[in-house]
Batch of 2 targets.
Target 1
Amino acid sequence: MSKHVPLPKAVQVAVFHRDLWLCRWCKRPVIFAPVMKYLKRELGESGVVGPQPAYYHAHWTREGAPLLDELGAVIDHVEAVAKGGLNDLDNLATACNKCNARKSDAAQHEVMKKLKPKPIKGKYGEPQNWDGLSSLFVMLARRAPATLTDTERNWLIALTAECQ
Ligand SMILES: [Zn+2]
């Protein structure tokens, strides 16, 4: 995920969909992070008692959001921006948060680039219809449009434009 050049949400969604919401490097299914915030809120409003489960934390901490710490979906630059990598689709890849963190180590990055694409053959085939729970986000976001932040509204627009 580039911290220097903000990518339009529509571009990020296009990359996630192209990559079938699977990490380019480890092939694990990734999770669209905003949905976890909504699931946490739904649960809070449902009257289920007990400690708040660790569904969402703004910084994807292991303590507060272990699923996102591992599998939160981010956009990776295959060739780093600092090394002249571009923001075009060919240089962008879906990554899980763990691989993205590993890739920020320059030496690891060189190793990982040579590994791609890492084939993992599921016994019954690769998932074709995983969506990172993004459809669930669309459903929950449409339920409470007045509560959306600007960022969430932009995600909703990008995701629903892609679906059509
Ligand atoms: Zn990964």
Note: The chain has one domain: 9-158.
Target 2
Amino acid sequence: MSEKTGPSNGGESGARDKRASTSTPILPVLAERWSPYVLDPRPMNREHLVTVLEAARWAASSYNEQPWRFLVAERGDAAEFSRAVDCLMEANQAWARNASALLFTVVSRTFARNGSPNRVAEHDLGLAMGNLCAQATALGIVVHQMGGVNLTKVRLAYQIPEGLDPVTAVALGYLGDAATADEELVKRDAQPRVRRPLSETVFAGKWGQTSPII
Ligand SMILES: Cc1cc2nc3c(=O)[nH]c(=O)nc-3n(C[C@H](O)[C@H](O)[C@H](O)COP(=O)(O)O)c2cc1C
């Protein structure tokens, strides 16, 4: 497949159109999602925030365990929001403090039905996050996920019980104005979006052998 789909050069959407350049067309919400650093520090639309969490709720999960949980801090609640920012690694605080809402994702490690370990708990949390990202994109909300979190701080600050573990932080918000933003963040947002090709990702027959479907 040689034809690429992606941002047009200098089209009406301008420099911040970060649509993926895909080898074949994919759903617009998947191609249009990206992880921006320059955010506009305005309040979150509460209804939209609930909607993205509802989308996450409807993800598939092993035995329908729904091992995901979310802690939410809205920008509008200054004290709570600042407590959440404080749980991020410093490099992430620098830009994520402009988010409209911050989430911490939490996973339950054991099945509620029998107490046995859930080997795929984080997989299922990832599915929920995929749903959340797609729904957010459809609503014009940008999402930037973070592994750079002080997990011990999160556990203590929110009194997360044993058996459940914080995993990531998630910044939700709106694209900021590159003209007035920190130069370093603008530079990061200008980087092209790249991915390993399918030929190095999809194998058949034996490990490392590109599948003939590609
Ligand atoms: C689980 C996870 C953790 C991430 N952690 C961080 C992080 O701590 N800081 C950061 O700036 N970006 C982080 N990112 C964003 C990735 O760098 C980004 O998704 C990746 O470069 C691909 O870019 P795109 O999302 O714009 O397609 C994380 C993304 C995911 C899914």
Note: The first helix runs from residue 28 to 32.
